[in-house]
Amino acid sequence: METIFAYLPPRTDPLADGAPPGLRTAIQPCLSVAGWPTDAGAPALADYAALEDATVVSRLRQAGATLVGLTRTGEFGFGLTGSQAGMAVRSGAADLELVVDLAGESRLAAARAGIWGFKPSWGTVSRFGVIGLIPSMECCGILAGDAPPIGEFLRAAAGPDERDFSLPDEEAPDLSGGRVAAGETTVGVVVEALDALPSPAREAFRASLATLTAAGFALREVSLPDFPLFALVHQIVGAVEASSSAGRYDSVRYGRRSPGAKNWNEMYLLSRGAAFGTLLKSYLFQGAYFQFEAYEAYENACRIRARLLAAMAAATSQADFLVLPATNPAAPAKAATPEDIYAQSRFTAFANVTGQPALYLPPPSGEDRPGWQLTGPRRSDARLLAAGEHLRGILQGGE
Amino acid sequence: MEFEAVIGLEIHIELNCPTKMFCDCPNDPGAAPNANTCPICLWFPGAIPQFSQAALEKAALLCLALGGELQPRSAFDQKVYYYPDLPKGYQLSQAHHPLSRGGGIDIADEDGARKRLRIHHIHMEEDVAKLVHELEGRTPISLVDFNRAGAPLVEIVTEPDLRTPHHAMEFLKVLRTQGRYAGASECSMENGTMRVDANISVRPRGTEQMNTKVEVKNMNSIRHVGDAIAYEIGRQSAAVQAGEAVVLHTRLWDPDKKATFPMRAKFEGPCIPDPAAPVIELSPAWIETMRSRLPEMPAPRAERFVSRYGLAGEEATYLSADPELAAYFEALIEAGIAPRTAMHWLTTQLAPALKDRGRELGNSPVTPRRLAALLHLLSRDEINAQAAREVLAALFESDADPEEIVRSRGFRQVSDRDALGELIDKVLEANQTAVNDYRNGQDKAMGFIIGQVMQASRGKANPKIIREILATKLTSGR
Fold first, then answer.
1. I need a labelling partner for B415 at 20 to 30 A (CA). Which of A34, A271, B65, B429 fits?
2. Residue B321 lies in a domain
3. Per the domain annotation, does B260 fall within a domain?
4. How many CB atoms lie under 10 A from the CB of residue B154?
5. Please, which pLDDT band fits residue A168 given cuts at 50, 70 and 90?
6. Which of A252, A265, A289 best tests the B interface by mutation, with the highest count of B CBs <10 A?
7. In this prediction, does ipTM exceed 0.85?
């Protein structure tokens, strides 16, 4: 347990009398749990205990969930290095895990653990209490062994939150799901995403799609020529937002203050120098570079982001949902630099750039075939989950 | 060579909202240090700014009062720099998409001619914390008070239309009036709710070039703004004449030395769109609702005071500059006091009396109703002007009605001709020299005699009747 959890509470929350046992939920310490050491895995927040629950946490508690502990994570949940995301579910210690999804971490962790991973649409789940880095792209990601706990989470936690003014001014998404029938459903295959896979992974992925055709789905090739730009735009905009977000860690109001400074300027340098690990520092430097030295490149990235959103909207309109690979076999297993993280996130970062939902569907256990990443337009979360459940049935030979 | 200055102002105004701009903390920087703070304004992990509707409304009212055009869409940016007074490492400010564009202020220039000074834009931003540098023993320490962090501000940026210190001072006076009328801010430079930076450059008169500017800060009254600009124009003109180049920098006004001195260069960071603060979208209907909430503004009010009440232009401008004073004036008129009497008593009696007692019109115990009652007693000749002044003083001490004070303190004027005649006879008898002087043609002796009669009546005699009786008694022997 110690390898998976960074913190286990002295005793689990007592259940209300007569209430059915709720979801056992493991939390990545990037989500605030009142009184728990939600330090986001960062030296910047060593010894920090959250003052309040994140909205997703308090809503899960209200729905009867039991918080089992805080999982180990790399700094601010960025990338999977140092992260045990997915292992609590995989080991059976939890039914549900909450992580922060900055560039695809929920889907990549799910692929690593062979479980389900889901990134909701941006703006459907409150970010209040999420200790993040990239406000316009991050959201709470969900890991589970199956679809129902994810649906349960969404029903409990999604919807407007008066404490998150950054949520779009719109109604709660329709979470009733909807039926997915093979004969009436078109699956779009993003050509350029497949092209970006090295051989033989590309062939293996194409081959896996035969299951869909066999089940009666119509397959349609969908073109997104700028697909490689998603990760690039993510890196520029994400690094800038991270640089700003990390500006608060100055040791003035909280966080560990490095000793020996003769004035506040030195205190800043010493404390901030000790607050971040090497990988994160590189990322923050990249962001500061675009902020201070190459602002035009950042503006261009924002413009390209708008274009990519339009291109993705056009792509999703051509099919009921899209299917892509999730993991990049060419990426290093452990990330030492931001570039390594972006290599790992090559196929997942797009959903953070656009704010659309994305689901990682693992292959049936014991089968040597690639998992699928499914995605659809923003706010199609329930439908995407329903599609995932339907496909899982097909993959397991049930339907 | 004769120089002229090109001046632009950047004015920060603190809005008088009950709460801060992005959280519910009281907007009260004067409270005990760090009493008014929360996880949002201290920017704890997981906090998300919650934009204040009240701040938006006050800012919008101010923009409309200055003739600005509220933008359908505005947004906050992060002004990035690292300083302990900045909890986020950036200040939320509308750098790229301001709340309002355009607008301006009309002033009277040195020759009394109307001059339009244009406003470039008005944007909202949050204030920063206050730093206090102290010694702990021999160790210098820095303390931060976050009460002010997140307080709602607007910044007004003018076009470089100003040419003289007079323009700047008049602009600020009108701006202060408009801000008070809009109910958005006290706009007091002395209290720090209005802070002014001036950008100044000089050029040979008659040319159109824009030369390198110098920013001057740290003026804490409108007078100081004028002084600082005048000093800076002189300094730059002399420098240019001596062949020195003016370099872009910031200077601080030292009110004691009456001079500006260069300050350490401030680091100017980038401004990037903030992903967390909400984008502000204003509908035409909302803007019209705000416009309808503005009261009658000072310029049209002054015009009305001239046409309806027959005040002089200057008097009308003076009264209408302060919304409370103008409302007080109209309350007196509504209570039946003649406009000239109301104007006279407000400016020469009540205003100094308030000032002496360190009070404001808003919390004055002398309400329009009580002052009107007093002025009615005066106009009915029941008391004389001297007594009226004493009753006014008494109104500050007790909450009794003026009638009651007149009755209980015996202020009622003596107008009984027989009684006054006897009194006057005694005074004349006791002051034969003055009587002789007057009869020998020294008119000013009359004033002395009237004074003696007033004194003998302990201030209660009706001066009009004294004059009449004296005129009869003295001219008979002249």
1. B429
2. yes
3. yes
4. 27
5. confident
6. A252
7. yes
